[in-house]
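TICKET: design request
STATUS: open
ATTACHED STRUCTURE:
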């Protein structure tokens, strides 16, 4: 599958930097596959070690580093190669979180082209020691490419730029593909199942398997108590997102539970990429949580079809798309009168409100309330919906299938 992140790998290679390429991402997003595909395409040979699956390698590397050897020296010894030959290859170190001693050693400049793969980056390690890239599930544009419909991508991007509607027949085709994407999501295993079977019937089973693998990371990296609390949060998350008020409520876990009791577990979930967190504007104690993949949420809602579940799926899709596009300065807004704006995009001090539409009815009353409250009346806002592209003096209507264009 063609992944947008390959451009980051090419940039790293062409820069000639001596720092390792750090590929972060939760289980199932295709990190290992992407690294190997890149290695095969751009290097004569690669060496690969997985520290989660290979206990012998983990012990060998830990002993070597603790004995004062550099990473390059340990790699050369492990593969029984002369160290000077390593510069002609690329080394892929997978699941480095299961070999903690490596992190400190990797913080030093390396002489070997190296891709480091991990679900998390320890808080004490400086990101500047790496060329960092986080891999997310396939976005809708990557999904189009995977299913052989990549010619739609240029059409969407072109009409996003000029804000003119696409031909109606193309618009309907894209909406149909988008509805499929909401069910399948962007986990490569689920997309592969969809492509090979030409149906969505078995993707829920794939999602269940991927979720089990994701949970295993939490259980492998954190103690039983913290991991257990994190799993409790994941268990109630779909039920929380069904509610009209989607702010996370800990009483769904059990009565008397507080944020303070679960803060560390929540942080662990975010750091492992098992949830995406969206804070309320200027009130970080109020927040929403989403799953990293919309298809997994759709599978969790299997058999439940309501306006609230549809709204939750669309919110999850928008959240994961904006985050994957680098929109980290996101929040939501609510008034005391319960007017709600689902997303506020913050960019260089400018705020753009976003209205999500489940149907074509209604007016943007919450947007008006937000603008009046913040003295922003008359400023442009986005509307994401199922309608074609169009714009007014203050609003840009963007079809859901084009959200990936917002960078």
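STATUS: resolved
RESOLUTION: sequence designed for all positions
ATTACHED SEQUENCE:
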């Amino acid at each position: 599958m063609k992944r947008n992140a390959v451009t980051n790998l090419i940039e790293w290679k062409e820069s000639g930097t001596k720092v390792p390429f750090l590929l972060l991402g939760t289980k199932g997003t295709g990190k290992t596959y992407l690294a190997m595909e890149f290695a095969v395409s751009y290097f004569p040979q690669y060496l690969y070690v997985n520290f989660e699956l290979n206990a012998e390698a983990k012990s060998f590397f830990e002993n070597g580093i603790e004995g004062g050897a550099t990473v390059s020296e340990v790699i050369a010894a492990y593969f029984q190669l002369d160290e000077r030959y390593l510069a002609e290859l690329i080394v892929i170190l997978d699941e480095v979180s299961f070999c903690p001693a490596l992190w400190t050693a990797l913080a030093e400049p390396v002489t070997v082209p190296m891709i480091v793969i991990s679900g998390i980056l320890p808080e004490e390690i400086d990101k500047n020691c790496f060329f960092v890239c986080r891999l997310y599930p396939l976005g809708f544009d990557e999904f189009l490419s995977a299913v052989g419909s990549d010619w739609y991508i240029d059409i969407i991007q072109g009409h996003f730029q000029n804000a003119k509607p696409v031909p109606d027949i193309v618009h309907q085709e894209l909406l149909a593909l988008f509805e499929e994407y909401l069910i399948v999501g962007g986990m490569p295993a689920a997309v592969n199942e969809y492509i090979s079977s030409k149906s969505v019937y078995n993707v829920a089973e794939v999602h269940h398997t991927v979720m089990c693998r994701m949970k295993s990371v939490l259980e492998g990296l954190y103690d039983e108590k913290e991991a257990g609390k994190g799993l409790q949060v994941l268990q109630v998350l779909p039920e929380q997102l069904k509610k009209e008020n989607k702010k996370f409520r800990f009483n769904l876990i059990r009565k008397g539970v507080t944020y303070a009791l679960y803060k560390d577990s929540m942080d662990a979930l975010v750091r492992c990429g098992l949830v995406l967190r969206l804070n309320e504007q200027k009130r970080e104690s109020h927040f929403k949580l989403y799953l990293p993949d919309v298809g997994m949420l759709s599978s969790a809602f299997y058999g439940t079809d309501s306006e609230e579940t549809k709204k939750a799926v669309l919110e999850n899709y928008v959240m994961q798309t904006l985050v994957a596009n680098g929109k980290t300065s996101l929040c939501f807004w609510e008034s005391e009168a319960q007017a709600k704006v689902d997303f506020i995009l913050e960019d260089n001090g400018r705020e753009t409100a976003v209205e999500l539409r489940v149907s074509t009815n209604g007016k943007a009353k919450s947007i008006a309330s937000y603008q009046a409250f913040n003295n922003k009346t008359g400023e442009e806002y986005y509307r994401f919906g199922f309608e074609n592209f169009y714009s007014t003096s203050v609003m840009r209507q963007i079809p859901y299938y084009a959200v990936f264009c917002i960078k």
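CLOSING REMARK: The longest strand covers residues 283-290. The chain is about 45% helix and 15% strand.
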